[in-house]
Specification:
Elements (H helix, E strand, L loop, with lengths): L8 H10 L9 H14 L3 E7 L3 E8 L5 E3 L5 H4 L6 E3 L12 H4 L10 E8 L5 E9 L7 H58 L5 H26 L5 E3 H15 L4 E7 L2 E4 H21 L7 E8 L6 E7 L6 H6 L3 H16 L3 E7 L2 E8 L5 E2 L1
Parallel strand pairs: 8-10
Antiparallel strand pairs: 1-2, 1-6, 2-3, 4-5, 5-6, 7-9, 9-14, 10-11, 11-13, 12-13
């Protein structure tokens, strides 16, 4: 006999949907409860069953190899119509279950379910979502202690369902915030490109103005990539520096002139977002500086970046170009305020991570080395 619909079926189903638990993966916290009641009540089957409009789905199932049944076969659909523990000592003697296929023959074992006991699982607003239930292949009765355990454990299952709902809601909120931040950053980048293009077309920018727009664009792009990596990171808040810097290098290459190749070699390493931001600023500003000063007359050149973890720990960032080297005062202090700002950003970034930064010309071109002590960086 198919169960009647709950008097507030639409509201009940809405509460079940809001719980965000249907078709979620197995959870050992739920399984521990079904294991406990199966052993304590000495029954072959224990379930956390959630009743939808067309099926009952098992969040936890012990003693069966199925995860759902059609609603027509659901005894729990009868249980959710009761205010308290629902017990059927012999399913063949109850009109609600006497013709239920599961009570005539169990297609998994060939044995029919002859006993059922289920405690309704309610949402915080009192709507029944399903039941914590046990089944046996023979008629029987439950003792007082077994009834009490089912009641108490059902309360624990309700708590777990509510906790899962809060976690799911937080994830939805996080994803929504992430989506809005991502859109905002993309809007800012679009505006920068638009105004830069218009100013270039109208010849309203001098060399300093053009460099300023490029500098701002680089920094916003780095922030956008960092945000993407943080969104994909684990709850620790650390990010994969190798993945992040590979994306930074790819981004820098797209904006580099055709005569300049930008390459990177990065060890697998997990760092905080604070550290990643500082390293990205140094990489971006070094690249911009090299493109502007190291390869005059459109000569071919290479800018390389390397991150490794020294034997004593910590992090070493090496930035190099094979350009002309040049006068350090001109190259680093710069011909305008934008170049000077780039240098100050690199110095500030090194200071923020307590790093030691050295830079200067050599026989191969120009080089910058940043050492971050072991207490800051951590290799995976």
């Amino acid at each position: 006999m198919k169960a009647d619909l709950h008097p507030m079926e639409d509201i009940r189903l809405a509460a079940l949907s809001a719980a965000n638990i249907i078709d979620t993966p197995p959870d050992p916290k739920f399984d521990a409860i079904t294991d406990l009641i199966r052993d304590f009540c000495d029954v072959p089957v224990a379930l956390v069953s959630l009743v939808e409009s067309d099926r009952q789905w098992f969040k936890s199932v012990k003693g069966l190899d199925i995860c759902e049944t059609p609603i027509e076969q659901s005894i729990c659909a009868h249980a959710i119509l009761q205010p308290n523990l629902f017990v059927i000592p012999d399913t063949w003697e109850d009109e609600r279950t006497e013709n239920n296929p599961l009570c005539r023959i169990d297609f998994m074992s060939g044995k029919p379910f002859r006993f059922y006991a289920g405690m309704p699982l309610n949402s915080p607003n009192g709507q029944p979502l399903g039941s914590l239930c046990i089944l046996d292949y023979k008629p029987r009765e439950l003792g007082d202690k077994q009834k009490k355990l089912l009641t108490v454990m059902a309360e624990q299952v309700e708590t777990l369902i509510e906790l899962n709902q809060h976690i799911a809601n937080q994830e939805i909120l996080h994803n929504e915030m992430d989506h809005r931040v991502k859109n905002s950053l993309q809007s800012v980048l679009s505006m920068i490109r638009l105004y830069s293009s218009r100013a270039e077309k109208d010849k309203a920018l001098g060399p300093s103005g053009r460099e300023a727009f490029k500098a701002v664009q680089r920094r916003v792009e780095s922030i956008a990539l960092l945000h993407e990596e943080l969104h994909q990171a684990e709850t620790s808040g650390n990010i994969n520096l190798k993945t992040y810097l590979e994306k930074i290098v790819k981004l820098l290459q797209t904006s580099a002139p055709a005569n300049v190749l930008i390459k990177g070699s990065f060890e697998q390493m997990s760092v905080s977002s604070h550290e990643a931001t500082a390293i990205a600023v140094i990489v971006s500003e070094f690249s911009a500086n090299s493109i502007k000063h190291a390869f005059p007359d459109n000569r071919d050149g290479i800018v390389t970046f390397k991150v490794e973890s020294p034997s004593e720990g910590g992090l070493r960032l090496l930035c190099q170009d094979n350009g002309v080297g040049g006068d350090e005062a001109m190259r680093e202090t710069g011909e305008n305020k934008v170049d000077g700002l780039g240098l100050r950003l690199m110095e500030a970034s090194a200071s923020q991570v307590e790093g030691i930064m050295e830079r200067g010309s050599n026989k191969h071109g120009y080089q910058l080395e940043l050492i971050i002590p072991p207490l800051t960086a951590s290799a995976e």
